[in-house]
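Worked Example 4.2. Read the sequence first, then its structure tokens.
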Amino acid sequence: PDDFKPTEHDYIAYVAGRDAIFKSRYGRSILTRGGIAGRLASEVVPGVKVLEGPTQGDEVVGMDGNGTVFVDDFVPEDKVEKVCGVYRVKGAKDPRIALLSWWPSQARWRASGSNGDQWTPDAEKWFKAREEEFR
């Protein structure tokens, strides 16, 4: 909604909540997924953590040509949305709920031309510029 303007306190609360998720059992798996959520996770989750999982192995993430199944720990979509800073806001003038976010949602990132199999220098340049807007 046009009448909602997030504050510095909103951003600080987002970062605290995001970092709590990254420090939970979901952090390692989010890091391995890549995209914008993976890049955000790399700020908090040590890279060596990828070697510590999966612990649950409750989501199929791939299969090779021989039928070998690859699994990882399931991460609920609401957790992925939270680390991207997606939140729902109802305006004072408009009763509909709007989805706002500090970063693109993981789904939006995947649909963009920026989502390759690796984090690119152009993606990093954009990330740093966007991050600077929050300071």
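Now turn to a second chain, presented in exactly the same format:
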Amino acid sequence: MTLEKTGEWHLGSGTWQVQDLADRNHGPQLVRTRLGHDIAPDLLPADIASLMQARAADGAAALYPPEFHYSPVNGTRLAAPPASGAPWVPPAGAYPVRQVTQGHVVGLRQTSVPLHLQDKAGFHAESEPAARIKLPPSGDYQFISAPFGTHANALLALNPEKGGLFAWLPASARWAPLHGVGGVFLAESNLPYAAWRAELHYNFNSRVFVATDAGLACVTPDLAALQYEVRYAGDGPAVGAPLTFQGLVWAPVQQGPGQVALVSLDANGQPGAPVLLNDAPPLFGMGAPVGYGRTAIWPCMTGQLVLQRKPDGGFAAQFFPWPAGLAPQFAFGSPYLAKDGDLWQLCFDSNNHSYAYVALGKPLPEIEPALGPRLSSGAMNYRFATKHHQAPWTEPEHGDDGATNAVVIPLLEVGPRSTIGIKLASTVAVAQTLASTDRLRFQLVWDDHDGETTFNTSVLPQPWTLRLFTHDGKVWAYHPELKDILGWNLAA
């Protein structure tokens, strides 16, 4: 690669302007992104340097583009940037689109990579976080960490209800709004909290897939320009969250009365052929979708919208109503992932005034009665404050924890038999606790092979809506009523 000593350098990271290559105090400046957008004028050089991982030589103030390992002036080795770590797509850090295989179960509260708390032996209930980030503007946010036209993972805050998108500028320590290119903006979403999730295509210019009232949206943020591009699939509101299935991102879109189209986009945002379902009942009270093998499921209060891969390579959609008298209980967390790969949804049986688990995606109902509900993150489930990995309809052979007033609500599975959850005291049934809007005192607990580590105590309304995410080597906790986003260091 031959580069001029002055003028423009057209690199993979964007277009850089060089005034005088020999000037060791003023290095090349990024002037246009890889996508061809001008750099936002209010972006500080220090923010660009941090996000692009511009590299410096010892004793020089000049910074060079991330493609350079050695100084173009004298050949001095440039400082290596820190590793960005794995991306994060909310709400649970799922695999990026192109990393999902048929062996993966998609849509549970399971991170794609194991997480470990650094120096956890030193934590206690009143421990202070290692870092804080100020809250974005008023709203209720989800957080995404990935390269968005940047070499480092950038942090985005998405407000689904308002269609708002903000970028964290690390050097300025502020949130900056992103604007749609050409006046095309991200539409709002009315999906309930328990049903919302996103998908991510991980790349230098990563793409985010979200459900909106205008259909399935593919958003390509261009952070250094403080802009984004968005395109839509479907002719109506997306009534369920996106799910990666068979190499495509799918979401159900209401086309008209009684007609639902399962629309798809590939990782590049190109649409596929929709799969239509006519005479569909109303899809209300949605839960989060799940997928495994050749089946994807969008559960709702009326039943299951099921998408299946056919032997001829095509796709077919069906709707399976819940067995008579059974209603899903999405507030208790993810479906249970059985050892044979089947997924089981907790339901309330109004006929018997009890709970039961229903196998998902089965045309003929399979039901397992249960003595009580469990709080689930996928492979793990909690009976009050005790973690189990057996089927949730199986009662423990020894011990009785029914008299305890402690409850653990798992937020994430972060490794084999490892969870992060909230622990609180309650003297009422778990269902009543989950319906409460009172401010509750709770502890954040990391439960793994070493036992339970308490690392924070807070008081919040509905603390089970706390959002966890990873970014910059830390696990962060966000709630709209916290004063800051709180962060704790992760072990390498």
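Notes for the reader: The radius of gyration is 24 Å. Helices lie at 45-52, 430-435.
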